[in-house]
Amino acid sequence: MSSDYEFSDDDVDNVFDDEDIEMQDDDSDGDDGGDMDDFKVAPKTTRKAWEVQFDSLTQASIEKLMEKDVEHIRGILGVDESKAGLLLRHNLWNKERLIEQYMDNPDKTLIAAGAAMPEPEPPRPSRRPSRKPKASASPKSDTFVCSICFDDAPDITPLSLDCGHAACSGCWSAYITSKIRDEAEHACRCMAEGCGLVASDEFVRSAVDEDTYVRFEELLVRHFVACMPHLKFCPYPSCTNTVSCPGAASKTSLTTVVPIVSCGARGLASTSSGSMTQSQELTRQVTGKEHKFCFGCIIDSDHRPVVCGVALLWLKKCRDDSETANWIKSNTKECSKCMSTIEKNGGCNHMTCKKCKHEFCWVCMGPWSEHGTAWYSCNRYDEKGGVDARDSQSKSRASLERYLHYYNRWANHEQSAKLALDLFAKTEKKMEEMQITSALTWIEVQFMKKAVEEVDKCRMTLKWTYAMAYYLAKGNQKDLFEDNQRDLERAVEDLSELLESPIEPENIPTLRQKVTDKTVYVQKRNSIVLEDTAEGFLEGRWAWNATVEGFEDPVPQDP
Ligand SMILES: [Zn+2]
Ligand SMILES: [Zn+2]
Ligand SMILES: [Zn+2]
Ligand SMILES: [Zn+2]
Ligand SMILES: [Zn+2]
Ligand SMILES: [Zn+2]
User: Fold this and answer.
1) Helices vs. strands in the chain: H and E counts, helices first
2) From start to end residue, where is composition biased (Basic residues) (predicted)?
């Protein structure tokens, strides 16, 4: 992840060992025990076991919180607003620690934050680089020569911070703009060598253009948010919202909850103001993709039901093994009967060869007839049966086969979800045409939309269940997990197939009934998977076959 912040998580953790009383007025307390209790209590609200409590905040409301802190420090330390801001930023917004340090040694604290100069020392011209011979600490009375660009034009304006190290306004502007734009740095120290004074917000405002100042304000907000363990900035491009999620503020909480949150915004922000009409803007807000992301890790999508540690482990594995796995992502396969090439062009895994009419499963290549009965075991890596069907001879081959089994299904759900959305776009168009040519109402042709959305959601759940199953230790719990996974997968594939059936005005009423019933069922199966997995995490029921951060070490077993 690209980071705008120059300190590591550890720094933040250390600074926030102390209780932050002010912030706790409107949030639940910061200690882990308290938060955990919140999650173990049977939900009195409608919140599900797999959901976390969170709030979304705009940039303006974060700025209000910052102002409140600045005001607080200003009152206690008796410094001006600008100094209070610099002190807080330098001390990572930890008010208690700042006050303590200031009381102990105010000068030292101010100097470290770049809010004051050290005691004046006699100038030491010998330390100046020889390439700046004309450099001058204070403007001469007759002509000013910029110490950076050596410009001595009579009309240039010398500018300096309180230290008096002057440079021309052009140099200041270029310097601060580059700090903000290129380095994402909000603390712009004086350009003079060895001078640690930081430019005030007022100075920055006067030195840069409006767009750069907007970026500067955003950097301040991002810095504040990064300092607060219970806050996270929305990772979607151009979005400036923040999410508050106290229940996922500590690392230990991430072994029991999957903190999927949303900043409240949708779609992509308009790049420049006025480039979108009002109705375009409205469409974006209504139909755009919700800004959903994980509060606990860097994954900017919903990875429920699996916890961050396992999800990240899986993604790393996929990255490392992507070369080997590449071939499997291919979109064509050969019919196992007549060997003619078949392209997958829908989300459904029930394939029928155009040439020989052989029906088979896209994922396991087995005959579809076996999938239609109670003996639906496509989701399991059945080691006994697998040995015959797959040519796994050596142990390393077997472990690759095992990985590919899970990876193939993982990737397929993602691919199928994409294809289903494409197909839906076509279907929706067709149905809207039918609305014109037949007696159907708009409402009557909308039933597919809900179903497609549900399939999409469930395929994301299924996708991550394969990451989970790959790392689950063998045993009863894994078997139960895979039972639930199989039931959801079966229901999703059924609904998916239904969505691809031909649509004619006369079959719409029956189709509608079938699709609606199946959608409800799929929803139910998805809830079962999400809920049971979430409860398992709270109960500490899941054991892994690999080392996962925050969990007990795995019991040795065969891979
Ligand atoms: Zn200059
Ligand atoms: Zn200076
Ligand atoms: Zn957002
Ligand atoms: Zn996560
Ligand atoms: Zn065939
Ligand atoms: Zn299959």
Assistant:
1) 17, 11
2) 125-134
Tell me the pLDDT tens digit for each residue of 154-197. 888 889 999 999 999 999 999 999 999 999 999 999 999 889 99
Q: How much distance in Å is there from the Cα of 192 to the middle of ligand 1?
A: 12
ipTM score for this prediction:
0.71
- Residue 544: count of CB within 10 angstroms of its CB: 19
Q: Which residue has the higher pLDDT, 231 or 505?
A: 231
The ligand whose atoms approach the alpha carbon of 549 most closely is: 4
Task: Write down the domain spans for the chain.
Answer: 9-115+215-294, 133-197, 326-539
Q: Output the CA 439–ligand 5 centroid distance in Å.
A: 40
CATH dotted code for 326-539: 1.20.120.1750
Does 348 qualify as catalytic in the annotation? yes
Write the CB contacts of 92 (distance below 8 Å, at least 6 apart in sequence): 7, 11, 12, 15, 227
Question: What does R_g of the chain's alpha carbons equal in angstroms?
Answer: 30
Q: For position 416, what pLDDT does the model report?
A: 87
Distance 547 CA to ligand 4 centre (A): 17
Find the 557 Cα to ligand 1 centroid distance in Å: 69
Q: Which segment of 17-26, 50-59, 132-141, 268-277 scores lowest on mean pLDDT?
A: 17-26
List, in order, residues 6 or more apart from 408 with CB less than 8 Å away: 328, 363
Cα 134 to ligand 2 centroid, rounded to whole Å = 16
Query: Which ligand is located closest to the Cα atom of residue 297?
Result: 4
Ramachandran angles phi, psi of 70, nearest 5°: -60, -45
234, 245, 348, 458: which one is catalytic?
A: 348
